[in-house]
Amino acid sequence: MTRSERVARAFSAAAGTYEAAAQAQDRVAARLARLVLDGGLPAAPRVLEIGCGTGLLTRRLLASIAGGDWLVTDIAPAMLEAARAAVSDPRPVWRVMDGERPCCAPGSRDLAVSSLAAQWFEDLPRALAAQAACLAPGGLLALSLPGAGSFEEWRRAHAALSLPCGLPDFPGGAALAACFPQGGALFLATESFTVSHADGRAFVRSLKALGASLPRPGHTPLSPARFRGLLATLSGPFAVTYAIHYALWRKEAA
Asked: Is residue 169 classed exposed, middle or buried when 0-12, 13-18 and 19+ CB atoms within 10 A define those classes?
């Protein structure tokens, strides 16, 4: 099974539990929507959303943008169906699609947007180049993803016991900026906040409910005994940091 197939399976399995656990995801979708709307769009824009999940961002944008041509996608079929079921607006066309390999004609979109999806891409620069190619001149590529410092408390808990951590290495601001293609102007902002959990076990349960428990490639999961030992060190309230990058890249006009 490929990495993309594993991601699709994990998120499809979480389609029914995602929104109840999506405190951080809802906050991030709200801010990204504001940034996109403030960034300026043409009348009736041609929109591509990548990794729509259950539609937290989709619903906000649909409510704020009149008209348009909407292609809303996710790699996980069950997530896409959950989003479709939550939206009564007739404008979106819904499609299962791998955001790293968008199926759009070159220059056919005015906005390509994704919230907390890009961290699952195997090759972020290649994915961003493919998404940028979908944009018309002057089009906007907007995304959010976790940056360096995210989930640092979870990393420290592993390090204290000399255990390997399955989290990926999230990029700093400069590393993320370097992933965008030439031929555009980039705005980048970072926001840090914490989400509190009753204990470490509750944090792990929340990741599973979100579909976000898939470890980085090559990671060997801890044995049950070691995992129980790790959770024993996190028996009290456990606050986890999200350091979220918001990136808006404007393609050069013709």
From this structure: exposed
